[in-house]
Amino acid sequence: MTSDSADQRLPTARVDRVPRGILYMLAATVLFAVSSALAKWQVASYPFTEVLFFRNIISLIACAVLILPRTGLQVFRTARIREHLGRSTTQAVAQSLIIVAFALMPLGGAMTGGTMTYTLNGRQFLVAVVNGTGKIEIRRAPGKLKNLEEVLRESPIEGTYGIGHTRWATHGRPTEENAHPHRDCTGQYVVVHNGIIENYLELKEKLQREGHKFVTETDTEIVAHLVEKYAKELPFEEAVRKTLKDLRGIYSLVFLSAKDPQKLIAARIGPPSVIGLGDGEYFVASDIPALLEHTRKIFFLADGDVAVLSREGVRVTDLDGKPVDRPAHQVTWDPIMAEKGGYKHFMQKEIFEQPRAVRDTMLGRISQDTGKVFLDEMAITEKAFREFQNVRIVACGTSWHAGLAGKFMIERLARMPVEVDYGSEFRYRDPIIDSRTLTVCISQSGETADTLAAQREAKQKGSPSLAICNVKGSMITREAAGTILTHAGPEIGVASTKAFTAQLAALLLLGSYLGQVRDKMAPDAARKLMLEFTRIPHKMETILQADGTGFYETLARQYFRQSDFLYLGRGIHYPIALEGALKLKEISYIHAEGYPSGEMKHGPNALIDENLPVVVLATRDETDPASMTLYEKSVSNIKEVKARDGIVISVVTSGDHLAREASDQIIELPAAPDLLSPLLEIIPLQLLAYHIAVRRGCDVDQPRNLAKSVTVE
Questions:
Q1: Phi then psi dihedrals of residue 318, to 5 deg
Q2: In whole angstroms, how large is the CA radius of gyration of the chain?
Q3: How remote is the C-alpha of 626 from its chain's centroid?
Q4: Measured in Å, how far apart are the chain's first and last C-alpha atoms?
Q5: The pLDDT of residue 74 is above 50
């Protein structure tokens, strides 16, 4: 959201003349009605995309009826509107404060001249602005962003300070009444909130006894009422600090007051809150992409920080009001990287960005001449790396799958025992770790609540932590003794793709480094592995070229109606089977399971019939006897599935014959060493999931019930 000190309204669009337009409008209306009825009739018999095709064809005819005849139907006069919206944010707001997209899961945001034009992930949208008379005006809408845009068109608002939010329902139903921002009894204070207030029922009952009236089912509303209570005797800032001390739980909050409209107050304990510093303009958001259009100079608030944003700048203190220094840093992400760039979806774009993400992650960290790996400067010394006795990897979701693949890499290259834990389970089982254990925390955002809690548990027990993360300056990187940044760039789609392959690349670098400093890797072996590693991005590009031929679309057309999938893999390929299944279930809502191939006889065989597609990872490295052994066993699994009438889709190495003969579908990949093959195998599984989801008409970038960064437990 932005502020604009100028009182400048958008002109109302108008039509000058409509000689015969009414007749064409009526014809278009009839055609659109027919298209809708046709779509409903065909949905039971045709794939989702065919239905959309029929509707689009008839819609085009309707548009032709409206536009092609030269009847004098005048186009809306929008030159002044375009001129108004085209001004740069700095020009539009001069030296006013801007607060951009304080949103549950923003993808990018701006509000120029009082008009919001941002895209974000959520199911409820709002904007609250202090208008020229000192009153707070609020516009809310459930559902998609376009619903709020329609509300703003019908009832525009203007002002100099504003906040916005998208919300998933953690407390209360996802209705307009429960949407942020939440107000006190007087309507003078509003607040938006990410997180959970754990003691809200206790506080709500106390406030109700004092006469406060509540109108929502949410935990956030009590925060606004607490500020109202304390602001009767204290200034706005002090009332906020006193309110924060009453709260138990995790939160990222932004406060706006009609009584003190020249400032906004942000506070954090738990979920991320990032401050952007522009030229005479200041921002607060819950993720970096929301700020890229305006500034790359940012810093994250730490737990317990309170930031006051005003025309003079940003002032950070602790809960007691003591000044805190939070140095800003430049992010290298480009605003264009956070746009679709001609692709249909962000996920599709990010799948195709994986070769670059892997290249950037290895850049400057390996020597092709010697095979030596160089990690970034960190507090963990080479001597400490040499003396670690074991490694503990903690992560969640896709990052956990990367960690599981990393276990195979580290154990094979460094000959160290590795355990992989879910961040959500780690601290609740009193893990046995000490200073001789290296704890590796993997998180795309660096703000994953469960992984952060696991990191703190390890730190409390004396174990140094190393972060593998995509966001410099995030909480996990700040609390780690060392960090390997993945350099994947902003990942907007909820289902992770390029962050996963970048994490695999970082784990391979870590495993190789540990193997080298512990003298477990021969120089020739290290040189050969790194040489093969540098070839991986080109091989990834080769795999992606198949998507341009329509291969994966054709495959998706055959299987998008299936209700279940099974993914199988052995050894280091098993985590990729898990990740492939996760991608499918995340974005297409098809039930999918990943399973170790060797466990088929222990239950999953009962699921196999003529309706079950089974995706088998059966690649091989002919120079590696261990890889060939796993390959032969995988071929046996393929034959086992076919013997039970299952549908087999095999992912194999180019030139394969044994798996091809027993499979219904073959996906061929370039040859690669076994430890590097996960970087190639995951791409066809991502593409298959993507095209199936598109075919089913699903929202690929914003799957239902999911958020990009899980900042609550």
A1: -90, -175
A2: 28
A3: 37
A4: 28
A5: no
